UniProtKB/TrEMBL annotation:
Residues 76-138, 188-273 form the Potassium channel domain. Pfam families: Ion_trans_2. Gene3D superfamilies: 1.10.287.70. One of its GO terms (biological process) is stabilization of membrane potential. GO terms for cellular component: monoatomic ion channel complex; plasma membrane. The keyword Cell wall biogenesis/degradation does not apply. It is found in: Cell membrane. SUPFAM superfamilies: Voltage-gated potassium channels. Keywords: Cell membrane, Coiled coil, Ion channel, Ion transport, Membrane, Metal-binding, Potassium, Potassium channel, Potassium transport, Transmembrane, Transmembrane helix, Transport, Voltage-gated channel. This is KCNKD protein. It is a multi-pass membrane protein.
Length: 397
């Protein structure tokens, strides 16, 4: 019988596959007609060119193939900056360690390719660790600000004294120590922050790079999400107005955008995990009802149906109350109350290795009541770090 983790994994794999199939159908319907039209126009232009200059199609195609090889090496028709001067190489390593990988610059020598393998191995790992630590501190700041606003609202209502001490006998004050901001509020804040950064960066790219504002927004998402198609790449012209200031602003915007989008992706992944847990619980409840009905039908001659139904209803109602209470807390998005955030922000490699080893070997994991209620236990890598931080944080008054 599949356990909960395997069921969650299989359901997520099926949903991702369906999501990819739907995306492929949509993009194929949108982009395929344009691709066919462009190919027809190109074939017509190629035919006219060979006829006008009395060239064979084979010779022209051979020449164009050589130009494609030169283009890969960094040769362009328009004037662009050298790809492998110091500033160009610095831009390249930035796209490597951030896992963006635009593809406009690639090493052509064997030595460069070998060095890239080892350089990217260490650089990508260090940058991912930096993103994780940035995510922890960002959640710390957001949780602290939201909890301060919540306490201020309680003081305005007169529930919490102005000196910050909790009174006795008030349920809202008693629950303030374990108060956690909603995951949806954190997701909204990260969405707004990412949108503001993207809009400001697009306002810079539009006049300097000569792109439309929509193309600039498109570039911001592709770059900040580390997808990095390479169809639009910033800071590639040989000259800019205020060139030093622009390149510094480009670096800052890309760094801030990647950090925010990375954090946003991790928060969205927790929401997806909650949704999957909810779907699995609904499926499990339906399966349990069907199995119990079959059991009651098979044992109808042994036990009176009325007595069985009454006992079954009592137990199921009790379980549903408990589960609904738990689900209410989990699906309401309660997420953060900073317990150890402000005290310690270190990541223990030994603890992470132990958790990964126990997960791989199938050992039972002990979860606290808060982690069970909030549904943030488990995960590997950035999701595991975020789950632990979001489930265990609180501030003692």
């Amino acid at each position: 019988r599949l356990n909960a983790d395997n069921a969650r994994f299989l359901l997520l794999a099926v949903l991702i596959l369906l999501y990819m199939l739907c995306g492929a159908a949509v993009f194929s319907a949108i982009e395929l007609p344009t691709e066919r039209e462009a190919k027809e126009r190109w074939e017509e232009r190629l035919e006219n060119f060979t006829r006008r200059h009395n060239l064979s199609r084979a010779e022209l195609r051979h020449f164009l193939r050589e130009y494609e090889e030169a283009s890969v090496a960094g040769i362009r028709v328009d004037d662009i900056r050298p790809r492998w001067d110091f500033t160009g190489a610095f831009y390249f390593v930035g796209t490597v360690v951030s896992t963006i990988g635009f593809g406009m610059t690639t090493p052509a020598t064997v030595g460069g390719k070998i060095f890239l393998i080892f350089y990217g191995l260490i650089g990508c790992a260090g940058t991912i660790l930096f993103f994780n630590l940035f995510l922890e501190r960002l959640i710390t700041v957001i949780a602290y600000i939201m909890k301060s606003c919540h306490e201020r609202q309680l003081r305005r209502k007169g529930v919490l004294p102005h000196n910050g001490r909790r009174g006795s006998g008030t349920s809202e004050v008693d629950s303030l120590a374990g108060w956690k901001p909603s995951v949806y509020y954190v997701m909204l804040i990260l969405c707004v922050a990412s949108l503001i950064i993207s809009c400001c960066a697009s306002a810079m790219y539009t006049p300097i790079e000569g792109w439309s504002y929509f193309d600039s927004l498109y570039f911001c998402f592709v770059a900040f999400s580390t997808i990095g198609f390479g169809d639009l790449v910033s800071s590639q012209n040989i000259r800019y107005e205020s060139q030093g200031l622009y390149r510094f602003g480009n670096f800052v915007f890309i760094l801030m955008g990647v950090c925010c989008i990375y954090s946003l992706f991790n928060v969205i992944s927790i929401v997806i995990k909650q949704s999957i847990n909810w779907i699995l619980k609904k499926l499990a409840c339906k399966c349990c009802h069907r199995c119990q009905r079959r059991l009651f039908r098979s044992r109808r001659n042994v036990v009176m149906p009325g007595n069985v139904r009454s006992q079954r209803n009592i137990s199921i109602e009790t379980d549903v109350v408990n589960e609904s209470d738990t689900d209410g807390r989990r699906l309401s998005g309660e997420m953060i109350s900073m317990k150890d955030f402000l005290a310690s922000n270190k990541v223990s490699l030994a603890i992470m290795q132990k958790q990964l080893s126990e997960t791989a070997n199938g050992y039972p994991r002990q979860m606290s009541s808060n982690s069970k209620q909030n549904g943030f236990s488990g995960g590997v890598g950035a999701l595991a770090i975020m789950n632990n931080r979001l489930a265990e944080t609180s501030v003692d008054r």
